[in-house]
């Protein structure tokens, strides 16, 4: 991590010292995860990667309109948690929510169609990339103004307890969210009410275009705040799906047993810009390179080979995923442009939008 | 039959609905132990317990967020925001999340929330604890807005708001808290989107809301003495808006006055004036006139606040002058 001070006046952040990842922990090969689960997590990471690369290609073809925020490089977080969560658990995500939607089992074709603004999109074209939701999969929404959804996740957790279930709410957000008031309101309420909620900060080191350490009072923006709410500060390698799986198992288990909330900081890196419009030239090249060498997917591939999985099995998975992404692309492109009959629906529970008689 | 104050009617209505629906809960600041800073929730924690009547920290975002998360996963919620001015603190939750999520998700989520809040002036609390914020919330697609003027309407419209599957902002007027009315025994249930003609007249229509309703009625009595027969309409709910009752009255009287406590710009009366101008222009014998608080922050001093908010005198004088 950088030793630079915050007040040095340097505003060309590409000239800063690179913030390098911790070395891979080979000990994580030995985490007790069944090989079937690991192969599923490999497949999921492949799906998230290939899906978002396809989405990016479709931006370049001007098929995806508006903005979109990719999580290339951060796939291990959504994968590890998604694998541990039960179908009836709740996910709350941010505008960077493609991976969190797919990792709960939503149909890639419907998600891609939403990015294209088609009628067969998962939100009928009404929400777009930043608001992906699939209630039937427990994916309770992607929230595009940071902070609020931590408080909403509390509500889902509170509801689970009131309804007498042992469902857990898992809420993902970025490092930048730790500096907005709702983060602190949510953590305090979760703590005093002992809610079954897991807060997961994906610290990708960049708050949009600004280094997070330059604008945050503590080194670990989430974990170092945990003690203020009586919680343990947990840091995990967010580029290692097995490490994420392990902390997810512990935190979700704790919440399910009624032992209260957790706050986890997953250290990772956004391989591309903040959004579609951002080429991310403001980052030190050595930093980008070092994190690319810690890309979660090749790392996981190597682990599976070390654990004795034949290369051919992994190739088969990659090819199956490629076929699914091709099918999703065809489904999305084949969708109709939404008609006027959809414009004025879905404001109220009666299906309409009337505000007067 | 029981006599209730407006203040007691709030707890009465909540209790009626909590007995009916065991899943209904409420959260807010000082609502359980203290019974609410306006004493509108007295006794509820004794009957329903601290799990259903929950005190919270001073965290308006956490309050509305918890309400939304619970509501969208099957638990109807009443959330209290102590003063309506504080809606500004949690406007993101109300305007961007609660109001829009059904539409943005293509109808995947239902959010049965009532946000109760103490609204309006007359208490000499100054500019940050006296505002009439109905225009803040009325302008957001996806929110229903209710503002009762009597104890009976508090109970009936609160019940209707709680049973409505959509988010409702329920504005309780601070200066009406001591008003009394007899309410009938048994279940009381009203409906949203229905204005009420509270005084019949033939010469002009006065549309009013909340605290402005009793003032408009008193003004109508004085106008009667001057030979002007005013019909007074209690608008009651701004969204959905009962435009038919207003248009029907204007077709009879041919003149319309609105009496609004909100500051001038974009008040609810502007929308009504626009609708009447558009749809009943040929029924009108004269201009639509809006009587509002000036476009200023509310002052604290008794004399100044009384000058700012439409009074019986100002309503009477304005109608007399403009009808002359």
How does this structure look, described?
- The complex is a heterodimer of chains A (357) and B (324).
- With 357 residues, chain A is of the alpha/beta class.
- Chain A has a single domain (33-342), classed as Thiamin diphosphate (ThDP)-binding fold, Pyr/PP domains (Rossmann fold, 3-Layer(aba) Sandwich), CATH 3.40.50.
- In chain A, 38% of the residues lie in helices and 11% in strands.
- In chain A, strand 7 (233-237), helix 7 and strand 8 form a beta-alpha-beta unit.
- In chain A, helix 2 packs across helix 7 and helix 5 packs parallel to helix 6.
- Chain B is an alpha/beta fold and 324 residues long.
- Chain B has two domains: 2-183, Thiamin diphosphate (ThDP)-binding fold, Pyr/PP domains (Rossmann fold, 3-Layer(aba) Sandwich); 196-323, Rossmann fold.
- Chain B contains twelve helices and 14 strands.
- Chain B starts with a strand and ends with a helix.
- The chains are: A alpha/beta (357), B alpha/beta (324).
- At the A-B interface, strand 2, helix 5 and helix 6 of A face helix 3, helix 4 and helix 5 of B.
Protein structure class of chain A: alpha/beta
Q: Tally the structural domains of chain B.
A: 2
Radius of gyration of chain B in whole Å, from Cα? 19 Å
Radius of gyration of chain A: 20 Å
- What separation lies between the terminal Cα atoms of chain A? 62 Å
Shape estimate of chain A? globular
- Spatially, the strands of the biggest sheet of chain B line up as 3-2-4-5-7-6-12
- For CATH, the homologous superfamily of chain A is named as Thiamin diphosphate (ThDP)-binding fold, Pyr/PP domains
CATH fold-level name of the largest domain in chain B = Rossmann fold
The beta-strand count of chain A equals 8
CATH architecture of the largest domain in chain B: 3-Layer(aba) Sandwich
CATH 4th-level superfamily of the largest domain in chain B? Thiamin diphosphate (ThDP)-binding fold, Pyr/PP domains
Task: Label the structural class of chain B.
Answer: alpha/beta
